[in-house]
Amino acid sequence: MFESKIIRDEPLARHTTLRIGGPADFFVRVDSQDELLQAMAWARKQHLDIFILGNGSNILVGDAGIRGLVIENHMDLEQEHVSGDTLRITAESGGSLPGLANRMARRGWRGLEWAIGVPATIGAAVVTNAGAHGGSISDNLLRAEILEARGFEAGPRWWTRDELEYDYRTSLLKRRGGEFVVIRAEFVLEQDEAIHSIARMNRYTEHRRRTQPTEPSVGSMFKNPPGDFAGRLIQAAGLKGKQVGRVQVSTVHANFFVNLGGGTAKELLELVALTQAQVHREFGIELELEIQVVGEQRG
Ligand SMILES: Cc1cc2nc3c(=O)[nH]c(=O)nc-3n(C[C@H](O)[C@H](O)[C@H](O)COP(=O)(O)OP(=O)(O)OC[C@H]3O[C@@H](n4cnc5c(N)ncnc54)[C@H](O)[C@@H]3O)c2cc1C
User: Fold this and answer.
1) Residue ranges of domains in the chain, CATH in brackets
2) CA–CA separation, 219 vs 16, rounded Å?
């Protein structure tokens, strides 16, 4: 019985890479499209909002948590079709993006190697236009099947890449926050020698190992402003290592804010505000958050 899967007051700190976040009033893990639709129908019946959670690696959840139903997406079926030296793969949105990138590269299909260290689900990567090392999800995406959260009974529709209106780390889906649910995405990859694809992945992994912290984080906190790097500006403003409570501007990479253990959303937001103010004072540049702040803060 599907309803027995729904949990009350689930601490979201357990489901975010920052290990921060208060409780979801209701929480459910879905493993298939059918379960996703049942979860959405249940929330509709209870007059609850829904929040789709991937791997929790691009969100800061408030200390008071999220009202309504949080649906953690684990749908991960794949289907592929090879034609000559291209492969079309359709992957459900709860699958791991780095997992897919790794499997494809090892079989000699190039295009997603950049994603090796990005802890994203495929659906969220389509929403956020995840990218690294000069590549991004929009480079290889052909189309995505998407539901409208409000009118989900009408069923999903395939959107072309152009309809998603991609830009640096954003899309129409992100700008219209929460209105749409990505069900699956279709990518096209090209044949290459596996040894080359694997070498590219290894280079990217090594680069991350050298330049990124290992403590819990949400990746890059701010978008890079045109022609510059947020990390460089934060470091130049003297904020590397700056701490508020148990959260810190990483000593390894200044655009990563890390949880030293027991950090709160309130502390992190204070550190964000302080960083934005200091960088603005020093350089006249407004740093824009790359992550999403969701849920409620404690009063
Ligand atoms: C160590 C580290 C390194 C990182 N490096 C990079 C990097 O190099 N490049 C990069 O781009 N990002 C990077 N990130 C950030 C993050 O991994 C990406 O933004 C990723 O796309 C988020 O995926 P997620 O599954 O964790 O999404 P979540 O954080 O769970 O969700 C993000 C948003 O997408 C929405 N969403 C999730 N799934 C769906 C869906 N199926 N349909 C509709 N909406 C949905 C959520 O509601 C939320 O609003 C990094 C993060 C960490 C912790």
Assistant:
1) 2-73 (3.30.43.10), 78-211 (3.30.465.10), 230-294 (3.90.78.10)
2) 12
